[in-house]
Amino acid sequence: MVCVIDGKDLLYCISKLRKRRQGIVSESYERSEKIIKIANDNAWKHEIYSQEYSIDVTDVFDEKSTEGNLLLDFFTHTLNFRETADKQLLEDLLALIKDNTTVKDGKLLGDKSESLILLYK
Prior knowledge:
121 residues, alpha+beta, four-stranded antiparallel β-sheet
């Protein structure tokens, strides 16, 4: 069995904000630990492969940027998010993105992490 798990990264923070605003209580984010526990409880073997990289989010702060607006749509799972979201949500989201990025070579970079877990007998 193959499981792909997102890490606690920029997209996780955005998802958490979106769910909180929608009144959705999200479960704790220890899915990889739960999967490994299930594997151990069933005497299954497992392998974990993790990858960390950065996403350039500089353009999301440019209202006229097609790429930035598409990236906001992707982050929020909402078509034309910048135009359709209430202003406070947009401001909160942009502040959250800014708080969870670092500046490198003049670009705002957000961390992204994923793990692939292989389970087998």
